[in-house]
C-alpha cells in the first residue's frame, strides 16, 4: 500500500480531519511496511493535537480508515508503544501517553546528552558535509524566528533538521534511540517553541551548531546541540508548570 499524501485521520471521538503524511522515515530505510505507515499517520495526528494526552485510539476506526484488518493496526500501535507515544492497557486499548513534568524533564535530559554524543562522534569530513545539508533550512529558521506567525513552520523545519542530524549518525542503534526520544518529546518541543523569543534563541543555537560543524569543531557543535535541547526542556517544563498551576 503506497503512502498517501494526505489521509483522513480519525480523532479521539471518531471525527475525521485531513492531516499531512508524516515525513519521518526509519533510519537507513526508504520503504515502510503497512503497520509503519499507519503508525506514522497516528503519530502525525498526535503531533498535530488531534489526540490529547490520555485519549483512546480506537482500532476499529483506524482499520476502517485504512481498509485493513485490525492486525496491522495493532502492530502499528505496538510500534508507537515501543517509542512510548502510546500505552496499551489490558481491556482498555491504546491511549496517548500522558507524561508527568518529571518524565518530560528526564526524557529531554537523556535526549540532550545522547544528541551531544552523536554529534561528537562525527569526523571532520562528516561534520562539514552535514553543515552543508542543513544550511538552507537554518537560513529558513533565521527568517521564521522573526515571524510572529511562524510557529508551525518553524517547528516543522526544526524537526526536519533534527532528523537530518540523526540520519548523519553512523551508529544506527543510537539514531533509533534518539528517534524514539524525539517522538516522546515532540509535543513538548512544540510547546517550547511557542513564543518568538524562544524561536530566536533556538535559531541562534542552530546557527552556532552549523558554524561549528562547518569548521570541523564537533565538540562545540555537540555543546550547541545539547543547549538546543536543554533550552526546549526549560521552556516546556515552565509552560507545563504554569498550566498545572492555573
Description of the structure:
With 246 residues, the chain is mostly helical. The chain has 2 domains: 6-96, Orthogonal Bundle (Arc Repressor Mutant, subunit A), CATH 1.10.10; 101-245, GntR ligand-binding domain-like (Four Helix Bundle (Hemerythrin (Met), subunit A), Up-down Bundle), CATH 1.20.120. The protein contains 9 helices and 5 strands; from the N terminus they run E-E-H-E-H-H-E-E-H-H-H-H-H-H. The protein has helices at residues 34-47, 59-66, 70-82, 101-120, 124-144, 151-167, 172-191, 196-214, 218-245; strands at residues 6-10, 16-20, 56-57, 86-89, 93-96. A 3-stranded antiparallel beta sheet has the order 3-5-4. Strands 1-2 form a two-stranded antiparallel sheet. The chain is globular, with a radius of gyration of 18 Å. Residues 1-30 have low confidence and may be disordered.
Outline the secondary-structure elements.
Blueprint: E1 6-10, E2 16-20, H1 34-47, E3 56-57, H2 59-66, H3 70-82, E4 86-89, E5 93-96, H4 101-120, H5 124-144, H6 151-167, H7 172-191, H8 196-214, H9 218-245
Antiparallel strand pairs: 1-2, 3-5, 4-5
Helix pairs in contact: 1-3, 2-3, 4-7, 4-9, 5-6, 5-8, 6-7, 7-9, 8-9
**Approximately how much helix is present in the residues?**
55-70%
According to CATH, the homologous superfamily of the largest domain is GntR ligand-binding domain-like
CATH class of the largest domain: Mainly Alpha
Gyration radius (Cα, Å) is 18 Å
Which structural class is indicated by helix and strand composition?
mainly alpha
**Spans of 5+ residues with little confidence (pLDDT < 50)?**
1-30
CATH architecture of the largest domain: Up-down Bundle
Count of folded domains:
2
Which strand order does the major sheet show?
A: 3-5-4
Report the count of strand segments: 5
